[in-house]
Design goal:
This protein is an alpha/beta fold and about 450 residues long. It is built from 20 helices and eight strands. Strand 1 and strand 2 form a beta hairpin. Helix 15 packs antiparallel against helix 17. The longest helix has 19 residues. It is elongated, with a radius of gyration of 30 Å.
C-alpha cells in the first residue's frame, strides 16, 4: 500500500545527484499509461519534490488531489517509477499549492470557449457533430429549435431558455449547437449539472470558492445540461441560485435543459423553479413516424459520408426502424448502427426478418398487443370497409388490395406462421399470403398511394 506523508524524514539520505530520476520521462510514461484526459485532469501537476535512496516524495497541489490520486493511481504510478529506477520502494506525498494562472477562464483560443484546466478539468468542449444544420426539425421539436436559433442572434431575448424532454430527444444536441454557433464571438460556458456539482465540491475542499464563483459567472452565455441532477442537494442549489442571479444581472444568456418542466422537478427550491420558469419553457415531444424516418436517413447519409461506407438500406428498413423503435432518438440511431454493422459483416442489406433478429433486444414484441385481428380491424377501418367484406371471397380490387395489405402487415408484425395467417383470413391457403406479401412489396416501390396508406396504417397500430 502506498504510504502518505505530509512531511518527509530528513534523516534518510538523499539520492546521489547524478542518479536522480528524470521526472519528465516519468510524466511521459504516466501520460501513455493513463491517457490524456486523466493525465491532464489529475497527474500533470504532480511534481518530484525530493528523491531519497529508496523512495520519492511527490508534491500535490491540494489535499483533495492527493487523496484522489492515492486512492486510484498511486500503486500503478509506483510500478512505473520502478521501471525507471528499481531501487524505489515507495512514494510519499506532500501538499504544495501551486499558483497557476491557467485556472482562470481562458478565452484566448480561436473559438473563445471556456477552458478550465488544472484544478478544473478541461471539459468544456463542443462536439462538431451536434450542429444546427444536422438537427432534423419536425413538428415535435420545431419550437425548441427556433428558440435556440433565436438566442444566438439576440441573447437574453428569452432568459432563461428552458428546454425539457425525456432522455434521447435532442436537448443536448441543441445546447451544443448554440455553443458552436456563438463560440467564436462570445464567452460560452457549457457544463452538465453533474460537472457543476463536481467542481463545486472540489472547490470547497480546495478552499477555492472565490475562483469557482469567478469561473462560472464570467460567461456571456451559460449553458447547463440536465439540471434535474441537483435535486435534493441544498448546498449546490444555493450556489446555483446565486450564480443564476449574478448572470442575469450582468445580462448573460442562460440556457437550461431538464427531463421535466420546472414545476415538476422534485426537491428543487421553489425560488429556483420560479427563476427557471421566468423565461421561455419549451418541451421536445417524441418524434412522429415521418420525423424518425428523416432522422434515420440523415444519420445514414452522414455515416456513409464520414466512414466511406458502401452499404445501402431500403426505405422499408428505415420505415421498419421508425415504426419499431419508440423509446428515443438515441436508441433509434443505436438500432441503425446495429443494422449497418450486420450489413457490413454480411456484405448485404438486411431484410425485415433479419432486422427483427438483429434488434430483438430493442423490440419487445410480447409487450405489444399487435395481432392479426387488430391489424385486420385497423386496415378495414382505414379503407372504410366492413371486416366481413374484407375477409370475404370477393376479389374486386377495392376489397382484394386492403386484404393483401392486411396479410402483408400480419407477416411483418406478428409471429404467426403463413398457414396461421391464411386461416385467419377465412381459411385461405398460405400460398395466398405469400402472393399478397410479394404483391404489396412490388406496389410499395411504385405506387405512392399504397405506400402512403401503409404508412398511415402502421402509425395506427404501432
Amino acid at each position: 500500500m502506498t504510504k502518505i506523508l505530509t512531511k518527509q524524514n530528513t534523516n534518510i539520505p538523499l539520492a546521489e545527484e547524478e542518479n536522480l530520476i528524470n521526472w519528465n520521462e516519468v510524466l511521459e510514461k504516466f501520460k501513455q499509461t493513463y491517457g490524456n484526459d486523466i493525465y491532464e485532469s489529475w497527474i500533470k501537476n504532480i511534481n518530484l519534490k525530493k528523491e531519497y535512496n529508496h523512495y520519492v516524495v511527490l508534491s500535490a497541489p491540494t489535499r483533495f488531489v492527493r487523496d484522489w490520486i492515492v486512492s486510484r493511481y498511486a500503486d500503478k504510478m509506483l510500478d512505473i517509477i520502478k521501471t525507471i529506477k528499481k531501487s524505489i520502494e515507495r512514494i510519499e506525498f506532500s501538499i504544495e499549492e501551486i499558483q497557476d494562472k491557467s485556472t482562470k477562464l481562458d478565452f484566448t483560443n480561436k473559438q473563445q470557449v471556456t477552458s478550465i484546466q488544472n484544478s478544473f478539468s478541461n471539459y468544456n468542449r463542443f462536439s462538431s457533430n451536434s450542429r444546427f444544420d444536422n438537427f432534423i426539425v419536425g413538428e415535435s421539436n420545431e419550437l425548441a429549435y427556433t428558440a435556440a436559433r433565436k438566442i444566438c442572434i439576440q441573447t437574453a431575448h428569452y432568459n432563461p431558455l428552458f428546454i425539457y424532454s425525456p432522455v434521447g430527444m435532442g436537448k443536448t444536441h441543441l445546447l451544443n449547437a448554440i455553443g458552436l454557433e456563438v463560440g467564436n464571438t462570445k464567452k460560452v460556458m457549457f457544463i452538465s449539472a453533474e460537472r457543476f456539482m463536481y467542481h463545486f465540491i472540489k472547490s470547497i475542499r480546495g478552499n477555492e470558492m472565490v475562483k469557482f464563483k469567478d469561473l462560472f459567472r464570467m460567461a456571456n452565455i451559460f449553458i447547463i445540461d440536465d439540471i434535474q441532477f441537483v435535486s435534493g442537494k441544498e448546498a449546490i442549489q444555493e450556489e446555483f441560485f446565486h450564480t443564476f442571479n449574478a448572470l442575469i444581472e450582468r445580462g448573460s444568456q442562460i440556457v437550461i435543459s431538464s427531463s421535466k418542466p420546472p414545476a415538476d422537478l422534485d426537491k428543487i427550491q421553489e425560488r429556483i423553479k420560479s427563476r427557471m420558469s421566468g423565461g421561455l419553457v419549451i418541451d421536445i415531444q417524441p418524434p412522429d413516424f415521418e420525423l424518425k424516418v428523416k432522422i434515420l436517413k440523415n444519420k445514414f447519409k452522414e455515416i456513409k459520408l464520414n466512414f466511406k461506407e458502401e452499404c445501402d438500406l431500403s426505405d422499408e428498413v428505415f420505415e421498419f426502424l421508425a415504426s419499431e423503435i419508440t423509446s428515443s432518438i438515441r436508441e433509434l440511431v443505436g438500432a441503425l448502427n446495429r443494422v449497418l454493422a450486420f450489413s457490413k459483416i454480411n456484405t448485404k442489406p438486411p431484410t425485415i426478418h433479419e432486422c427483427k433478429k438483429i434488434l430483438k433486444d430493442f423490440i419487445n414484441y410480447n409487450s405489444k398487443s399487435i395481432n392479426v385481428e387488430s391489424i385486420q380491424n385497423i386496415v378495414a377501418l382505414h379503407f372504410n370497409l366492413n371486416i366481413q367484406e374484407m375477409l370475404s371471397a370477393r376479389r374486386s380490387r377495392s376489397l382484394a388490395r386492403p386484404r393483401q395489405i392486411a396479410m402483408y402487415l400480419s407477416k411483418q408484425y406478428t409471429t404467426n406462421s403463413l398457414p396461421d395467417i391464411g386461416r385467419k383470413f377465412s381459411n385461405r391457403d398460405h400460398t395466398t399470403v405469400i402472393h399478397a406479401v410479394k404483391k404489396i412489396d412490388e406496389l410499395i416501390k411504385k405506387d405512392n398511394e399504397i405506400r402512403q396508406s401503409i404508412i398511415e396504417i402502421k402509425k395506427k397500430f404501432l
